[in-house]
């Protein structure tokens, strides 16, 4: 235990017990996604790859998710987003890393965080997807690139229907000016965020990479909403 733990002791996000952000009792309640699923229809799919019938020119090629967006994971993610408890990210990364073996990820993939609009990032002070992607990059010694920017400050997706979610994020992303299309063409990318619900945000981000001739674009999140 370090000095910070003595001054600001960790408490379970679910039950409030001291010691860890997710205590052993609450950890046992996490509902893991046992079978990999297709990002489009969300039915069981071998290795998380998009079903042949669900593929499309600008669609995601696969999906990695660790668990369901329920307590205590839901509470942990909300703590990161709205209470700025950065250390919880380490717990979420370890959780995600423990499930990677289930998925048939493309080789030599580059991790790309789903960006926040600069106004939202300035208000919050950080982008949780960026922290996740950077930590995963170091943990697995794989490439990282903040290739995308969010040009539209979209409203929250919470409470929107599937169609409303699509419209809300339509045209919200573009390649960062510092990134040339030749840096994207022929390469494999994994978009990283905390929660995958309808997939609208990830799909819109994937379009930008696919239009620049990316070979494969997967999505990776901690939780499935």
Tally of helical runs = 8
- SS strand fraction: 15-25%
- Trace the largest sheet across and list its strands: 1-7-6-2-3
Poorly predicted sequence stretches spanning 5 or more consecutive residues: none
Q: Which of globular, elongated, flat, extended, rod-shaped describes the shape?
A: globular
Q: Helices and strands, in N-to-C order?
A: HHEHHEHHEEHEEHE
| Termini Cα gap | 34 Å
Give the number of DSSP strands: 7
Biggest beta sheet attributes: 5 strands, parallel
Radius of gyration: 17 Å
What is the average of the pLDDT values? 91
Helix content: 25-40%
Structural class per helix/strand content?
A: alpha/beta
Strands, helices and their partners?
Elements: H1 3-7, H2 24-27, E1 62-68, H3 73-83, H4 88-97, E2 109-113, H5 118-124, H6 128-140, E3 143-144, E4 148-150, H7 162-169, E5 173-175, E6 188-196, H8 200-211, E7 216-224
Parallel strand pairs: 1-7, 2-3, 2-6, 6-7
Antiparallel strand pairs: 4-5
What does this structure look like?
With 225 residues, this protein is of the alpha/beta class. 31% of the residues lie in helices and 17% in strands. It has eight helices and seven strands, in the order H-H-E-H-H-E-H-H-E-E-H-E-E-H-E. The chain has helices at residues 3-7, 24-27, 73-83, 88-97, 118-124, 128-140, 162-169, 200-211; strands at residues 62-68, 109-113, 143-144, 148-150, 173-175, 188-196, 216-224. A five-stranded parallel beta sheet has the order 1-7-6-2-3. Helix 4 (88-97) crosses helix 6 (128-140). The radius of gyration is 17 Å and the shape is globular.
């Amino acid at each position: 235990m370090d000095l910070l733990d003595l001054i600001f002791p960790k408490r379970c996000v679910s039950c409030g017990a001291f010691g860890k952000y997710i205590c052993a009792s609450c950890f046992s309640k996490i509902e893991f996604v046992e079978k990999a699923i297709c990002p489009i229809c969300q039915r069981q799919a071998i290795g998380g790859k998009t079903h042949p019938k669900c593929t499309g020119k600008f669609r995601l090629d696969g999906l990695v998710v660790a668990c369901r967006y329920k307590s205590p994971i839901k509470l942990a993610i909300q703590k990161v987003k709205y209470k700025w408890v950065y250390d919880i990210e380490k717990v979420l990364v370890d959780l995600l890393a423990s499930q990677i073996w289930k998925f048939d990820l493309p080789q030599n993939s580059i991790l790309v965080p789903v960006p926040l609009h600069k106004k939202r990032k300035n208000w919050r002070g950080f982008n949780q997807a960026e922290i996740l992607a950077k930590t995963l990059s170091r943990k697995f010694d794989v490439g990282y690139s903040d290739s995308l920017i969010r040009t539209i400050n979209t409203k929250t997706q919470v409470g929107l229907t599937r169609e409303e979610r699509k419209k809300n994020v339509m045209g919200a992303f573009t390649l960062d000016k510092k990134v040339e299309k030749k840096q994207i063409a022929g390469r494999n990318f994994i978009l990283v965020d905390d929660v995958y619900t309808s997939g609208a945000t990830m799909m819109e981000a994937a379009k930008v990479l696919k239009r620049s001739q990316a070979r494969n674009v997967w999505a990776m999140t901690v939780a499935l909403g």
